[in-house]
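Action item from last week, closing it out:
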Amino acid sequence: MSNIERRIARAAQRLDNVPAANPARRQLEVPNPVEFATSDKYLNQMLAPRQATILKVVFLRDDLLTAYDRQVIEEWQAGFTMPNRDDAAVVDDVLRYHGEEGVVPDVFERIRRCQAEGRRWFREVVFVGGRRGGKGHLGAIIGAYITYCLLAEGDPQAAYGIASTKQLRAQIFAGNRLQAQANQFADLQNVILDAACFTDYVHRASVSGTRLGLVTPAQIEAGDQREPRLLLQAKETTALGARGPAAYMLFFDEFAHSHGAGATSNSEELWQAAIPALSECGRDAFVYQGSSPWAQDGQFYLNYQRGLQVNEATGDPADHAVLVLQLPSWAPYVDADRGADIPMWPDGPCFAPARPVIVYDDELRRREQANPETFAVEYRARWQTSQDAYLRKDQIAALFGSRQGTTLTHQSGGPLSTEYYAHADPSNSGANFAFVVGTARTHRGSQSSCSTSSRSGAPRTSPTDRSTTTRSSPSCAGTWIRSTSSSSRWTSSTPDP
C-alpha cells in the first residue's frame, strides 16, 4: 500500500467514527488565521512565531500584529530598497524595489489598499523561499483557511452568483501532476483531513490521491450531498488541464522550475491558461506561488518582478494586491524555540515552543563555504544570475569596489592624452551584446586596468560573423578618440566564447 493509499484509508476510518453532521448547521464561526492554524478546534498545527507573522500579512490582519511582529516586518522591509533612477534595478525603463531578502517595503500601504477594496487576503502571494523553508506547509494552512471561509458563506455558489450545481475548485499545479500530488496537494489534503472543523464537510467518495471534495452547509441542509460543490485537485501541468472549471484558488508549486517538457506546458503557457478561471470569485480569488528560485526567466520570475514594480512618478506599488516575500530557509523558524515568550496576537496566548526545522548552523556554513553559488540559490533563496557563471557575484563586486583608496567611476568620453582599449563581446539572439572601454592606471607604482565605460544590450538580429557584430560599437567607441579595439568572434555554429 502506498503512502497516499494509507493516508486515505486513515482518513476514511476517522470519518466513519464521526457522528452525522447537523443538518441545521449553516453558519460557521471564522476565527483569526493564527487561531485557525493552531487551535485544536480547527487545524491544530504547530506554528513558529514568524510563520504567524507571514499569515497575518497574507490575510491583511494588521490588527493582529504584536510588537514582535512589527519588529520582524521592519527587519524584512530593510532587505529591499528603492533604487536610484540609474541603478541596475531599473530595467527596460521600469522602476522596481531592489533586494534579495525580506518583504516589499510598502507592505503596509498594500495592506491598506487591499482592505479599502474589501479584500480579505492578497490576491497573489509570491513566496521565494529556500529549501525546507516551510513554503508548502504555510501554503496548506493558507489554502485551508480560504476554503473554510468559503464554507462559512453557507452557499458559496450563491455568494458568487454562479449556478448552484457548478463546482468551485482549488487547482494545484507543479512541474507535473505527480509532483503536485506528492507535495503541495498532499500538504493541503493532510491539513484538511486531520482538522476537526472540516470533518462534517468531507465528501468521502471524492477523496483520492489527486482529489478532495467538500460539501457545503447549504448542501447538508438541503440533503443533497451527491456531488461535492468544492473540489481541491492536483492537476496535470498542461494548458488544457488548467482550462474549464471555475476556480477560487490556484497553487503553483515550485513554479520557478516549471520549464515544460514533453506534454507539459511551460510556466507562461500554464499561467495564461489558468488565471481566467478565477474571474467569477472576484476579490476573493487567490493565487499562491511558493518556490525556491532558479534562473531569472519564466512566469514565476516575471510575477516576482511585477510584484516589486512601483510607479516612477508616485512611488506607489504597480499592483498592490501582490505580496512578495523572499526569505532564506531558516528565516521563518527564527525564535521558534522561544515561542512561549511571544504572544500569538495582542493579549492572546503564546506559541508552543518548538525545535526549528532548519537553522543556519555550522553544518550549513560548511555547505555554503564548499559551494557558495549553489547554497545562495537553494538555501538563501537568491536568484541564479547565470547557469554557468564565469565569475561569482562577490568577485564581480570586488572588481568594482575600492582599490588602493580609489573607486571606479564611469565616464562618457576620454581626453586625447589617454589611450583606451575597447572590447566587444557579441552574443546569441536574445542575450546581451557587451561592449567595454578601459584604460590602464598607475597608482603608487603599480598598474591596474580600469573600466571607464560599459554597455550591454540585446541584438536586434542574430550575429553571424565578426563584421556584423562590430557595427554596433562605433556609437560608443567614437567618444574615445585614441582607442585600440577588439572583439570576441561569434558564428552561428559556435557558442559565445
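Closing note: Residues 18-25, 459-475, 491-497 have pLDDT under 50 and may be disordered.
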